[in-house]
Automatic annotation (TrEMBL):
It comes from the Bacteria. Signal peptide: none annotated. One of its GO terms (molecular function) is isomerase activity. This is L-rhamnose isomerase. Keywords: Isomerase, Manganese, Metal-binding. The keyword Transferase does not apply.
Length: 396
């Protein structure tokens, strides 16, 4: 089924201004613990990663900001990096902290029993907040690699209490326009227990902090079979869904292209975001309360097209989720028409919006087919010939 011109025209205004933040680390070389493959043309500097993100935005109009990871993206002058980004037509977005690559953090960072190590981890977050002041970023995103491997190894309750204390100290320094966003992940790198394993723990921790502390839902961080759209619904209902890290996974935390593994799941998630009022600009400055971000890497495919494909997948599935006839759905639900309601839902999911989206992009001065346009642009070949010498960036 394809869309009738009418129904696409109805939803098109809602696609206007959709923004999906790109992770700087998607533009560095990445891999598994078995091998990181180098690829020609890969960014050698933070500035080149930002330039690659700007290229994705140029071809899609969907990715106006790029998230940084500290210290992976540490530079001397963040003001200059901000100007560099703005010159390229993008801004610097979420700042991600990193407390997982330092020997001191082997047994924990914000949860560590040693107050000196906890303070070191807190100071790192203060440094991230300073970076945010220079970049104009709104969100400090915290993903913690903390936990234990063996039953009895650690005092679960003590760690949770220390986490609450450390987060409160960080939150005290979060500015009135800034947010603290706490991500959860059910396992890895700790294999027995993780200190922030699920949305409930993240919710409990951020609720204790205050209004500007919210939850990040990374789609790849749930046990197989988890009903992620239910989590989306609940966090929106509680006013605590701050952001998404979009990606796909088949087994564990694969960070594959969003919408590649289970497009229907992406549809269901986006439907709940829309249904719960989390879609679209909610603030006067055009920012949304629920930030869409990618958290992906491209180990074997080209990185810029990988990111282009990803934001297009989100756009396409957003369009399909917007097409759900909510009135008909509600009527069927309230009438107890099980199959009728299901059909309304599936009709939207089964709608092919690609031709309409292509025409709509063209009408806005964008390439109708960004993947094809990029492939035909010669940009990749240019990167491969100009980016010689130096050391390619890698995300570990
Ligand atoms: C590790 O699982 C992870 O993928 C988290 O999802 C973070 O968001 C990301 O790394 C960057 O720190
Ligand atoms: Mn993530
Ligand atoms: Mn992850």
């Amino acid at each position: 089924m394809s869309t009738s011109a009418d129904s696409f025209a109805r939803i098109a205004p809602q696609l206007e201004g959709q923004a999906i933040e790109l992770p700087s680390w998607a533009f560095g070389n990445s891999g598994t613990r078995f091998k990181v493959f180098g690829s020609p043309g890969t960014a050698r500097t933070v500035e080149e990663k930002v330039a690659d993100a700007a290229t994705v935005h140029r071809f899609t109009g969907l990715a106006p900001s790029v998230a940084l990871h500290i210290p992976w993206d540490l530079v001397d002058d963040f003001g200059a990096l901000r100007r560099h980004a703005e010159d390229l037509g993008v801004s610097l977005g979420t700042i991600n902290s990193n407390t997982f690559q330092d020997d001191d953090y082997k047994l924990g960072a914000l949860t560590h029993t040693d107050p000196k190590i906890r303070q070191k981890a807190i100071d790192h977050h203060f440094e991230c907040l300073d970076v945010m002041d220079a970049t104009g970023s709104r969100d400090l995103k915290i993903w913690l690699a903390e936990g234990s491997n063996y039953p009895g190894q650690a005092d679960l309750r003590g760690r949770q209490d220390r986490l609450a204390e450390s987060l409160a100290t960080i939150y005290d320094r979060v500015g009135p326009e800034q947010r603290l966003v706490l991500e959860y992940k059910f396992f890895e790198p700790a294999f027995y227990h993780t200190d922030v394993p699920d949305w409930g723990t993240s919710y409990a921790q951020v609720s204790a902090l205050g209004e500007r502390a919210v939850v990040c839902l990374d789609t790849g961080h749930h046990a197989p079979g988890t009903n992620i759209e239910f989590v989306v619904m609940q966090l929106l209902r509680l006013g605590k869904l701050g952001s998404f890290d979009f990606n796909s996974r088949f087994y564990a935390d694969d960070d594959l292209i969003v919408g590649a593994a289970d497009p229907f799941q992406l549809f269901r998630i986006l439907f709940e975001v829309i249904r719960g009022g989390g879609y679209g600009p909610a603030n006067p400055d055009g920012t949304s309360e629920v930030a869409f971000m990618l958290d992906q890497c491209h180990n074997i495919e080209q990185k810029i097209p990988g990111q282009i494909r990803s934001v297009l997948n989100v756009q396409e599935m957003t369009a399909r989720a917007l097409l759900v006839d909510r009135d008909a759905l509600l009527a069927a639900q309230e009438a107890g028409d099980v199959l009728g309601a299901h059909e309304v839902f599936m009709d939207a999911f089964s709608t092919d919006v690609r031709a309409d989206l292509a025409a709509w992009r063209e009408s806005r001065g964008l390439p109708a087919h960004p993947m094809r346009a990029y492939a035909g642009s010669g940009h990749q070949a240019e990167l491969e010939t100009t980016r010689v010498g130096g050391t390619q960036m890698s995300w570990t």
